[in-house]
Amino acid sequence: MYDGPIIDTHHHIWEVRNYPWLTAPPSPKIFGPEYELLRQDYLIDDLLGDFGDNKIVKSVHEQAHYNPPDHAGETRWLQGVADENGFPHAIVGHANITDDDIETMLAAHLQYKNIRGIRHVVAWHPDKPEWQVVDRPNFCLSPEFHRGLEALEAGGLHFELQGFANQFKFFADLLAGHSGLQFCLVHGGLLTGDDNASFEAWRRAIAPLAAFENLSVKCSGPNVVNWGTPRSAGAVSRQYIALIDLFGAERCFFGSNFPVEKIKIPYDDVVALARTALARRTKAEQRAFFHDTAAAFYRLD
Hints:
This protein is α/β, with parallel strands linked by helices. It has one domain: TIM Barrel, CATH 3.20.20.140. It has ten helices and eight strands. The chain starts with 5 loop residues before the first strand and ends with a helix.
């Protein structure tokens, strides 16, 4: 099993007062209808405590839907946390990519040295309203979205892409239209079921995306769309191995999605699932997956 340094490329911290979705009455989310565990402050010391003895040497904070419309406020706060504590080493912020004044929002984020990219979730699943973040599956192909991505590239930022297998054909068009922009597919491509039929449909849908060298994959949040019991090591391994076989360890990296994943399993188990998945890969692949690929993608060296 891998026992070297790890970069966690997907976690959150928050003061709940700044996150309206945490203070509002609970409602079904992508990760389920019950999340009382999340409805409290989760600060940098809580995160570092959950890291435990897993040799987490650096980390990346993913936007967590901070108080709108002050999207850059989250980056400002996180930069202060990083300056005082060392973690997080990089920040993925939020901006409405379709905004007419996207350049102004990106400039606000770019005041802070740890900003690296932007996530604007475009997930849309045909069967679950709770998994429909935007109003149509091809939302990302609008002229406004394309223009926003051009602004992102001009600012030296990357884009974190989050959606389901039914959207991958649209993602292919998006990637082809922005070959100079780096993308990251979040949460391992959101596999929605571990039965053979669901897995094979997902694998067939994601395979064409491997042709786009400007796309990397974040193997994070193994239970993020799992509303049942925690997924087995075998199921997570099958998913992660398929991704590494398609994209290579030089384009795949680890992320926890803590504290959201904490609804299902502790941090040690998130790391153990990934270590188990990579157990039969070469030492070079393991080092790349857990550390080197993320260090390069998020410019952490």
